[in-house]
Structures are given as C-alpha cells and as structure tokens.
Write a structure and sequence with these properties.
Length: 210
C-alpha cells in the first residue's frame, strides 16, 4: 500500500483538499492529513511544485493541483465511473465544483464586510441558483440518485463537499427547497458510513472554520 501525505492549510479546515480526503475516506484508505498554518506557508511555498497547495505525496513523489489529485485517487480506488464515458462525466462535475469554488473566492477574499455580504448575495443569485436548477435536471435525467452511473463517484463527493460543507453551512438550506434530488444526493452521501466517520472525526479535531 502506498504511503500518502496530503498537504493543505489548517484553516479553512476543508477547502480544496477536502474532496481528496473524502475519496480516501470513502475508499477506506489511510493517509496522513498534513495541515499547516498560514504563517508557515512562506517557508513551505518554495518546496511545492507550483507554489500552490494542496499537494499529494505518494511514496515520496509529489502531485500538485487539487483536481489532478482527486482524479488520480478516484480512478485508483474505483470512484471515477465504470467506463471512459462515466469517467468523463465524473470529471465534468468535478470541474463544475472547481468553477463554483473560484466564483466563491471573490466574496470570500473581500475584506469590507458590507461589500462581502453584497458579493455573497450576488454569488447565490447569479451563480448558485442557476447551477442548482441545472444539476437538478441532470439528476432527473440520470434517474439513479447519483450524478454519474448507478453508484457513488467522486462527483457525488464533490457536490456533497461544496453544497453541504460550504453553501448549506454558510447560507442555510433554503437553496435546496426546489431541488429535492440534489438534497437527496447530499443526504445520501452524508449518511455513507465512511463519510459519516470522517466528518465526525474532522469536526471534532478541526472545529474552527472561516
């Protein structure tokens, strides 16, 4: 079994490394969750391939870019879909979440609280609401309870991580009132034994969140 070390900031406790943590957890694969403070980052940054985190060490080899890491792990541990088409769909949904994270970064980085509130409202109205409508249609089309195929994939974990661990925590669940299929998916992933075990451990060990 390879020795995995996943490196990311300790705050936010989830962030762009969380999908890979969920993949490890769902697959039942041990990994070292290496977290560091922002004050340590200037010393760590020059040691990374592209001055970014997360990075994944695999027996001493280093892989950068959050989605590359997640896709590598998903393929290796059977969470990327059963064939090339499902793998492409899985990638599509992971890229959707990447786009949403980038959009969320704009209000997140705003220091003026009044302006930040305004930007978050715009983000929810202009970005989240139409995306929820779109993904609800895709879930209805797939008609299995999952985004891809007939079983859980990294795509489902990515949507759970973003919508449950970020949007729902920050804004409440009202955005799901007209999206029963997405709500059902989030609840289904949340109830998976390995995911439940991970989130309980994470929330007890890392209780603080930006």
């Amino acid at each position: 079994m390879p020795v995995y070390k996943l490196h990311y900031f300790n705050n936010p406790r989830r962030g762009r490394a969380e999908l890979s943590r969920l993949i490890f957890s769902q697959a039942g694969v041990e990994f070292k969750d290496v977290r560091f403070s922002h004050s340590e980052w200037p010393n760590i940054k020059p040691t990374t391939p592209f001055s970014q985190v997360p990075i994944l060490e695999v027996d001493g080899q280093v892989l950068a870019q959050s989605n590359a890491i997640a896709r590598y792990l998903a393929r290796k541990y059977g969470l990327a879909g059963k064939d090339e088409w499902e793998q492409a769909q899985n990638d599509m949904y992971i890229e959707n979440i990447h786009d949403l994270l980038n959009a969320a970064a704009v209000p997140f980085m705003e220091k003026d609280l009044a302006k930040q509130k305004e930007l978050y409202q715009k983000f929810m109205t202009d970005t989240i609401t139409p995306h929820v409508v779109a993904v609800e249609k895709q879930l209805k089309k797939n008609n299995t309870g999952y985004l891809v195929g007939k079983q859980v994939t990294a795509a489902d974990l990515a949507y759970y991580a973003f919508f449950s661990d970020f949007i729902e925590v920050k804004f409440g669940g009202a955005f799901l009132k007209d999206a029963p299929l997405l709500k059902s998916l989030i609840d289904r992933v949340k109830a998976l034994p390995n995911i439940k075990k991970w989130t309980e451990f994470r929330d007890s060990k890392y209780p603080e969140e930006n």
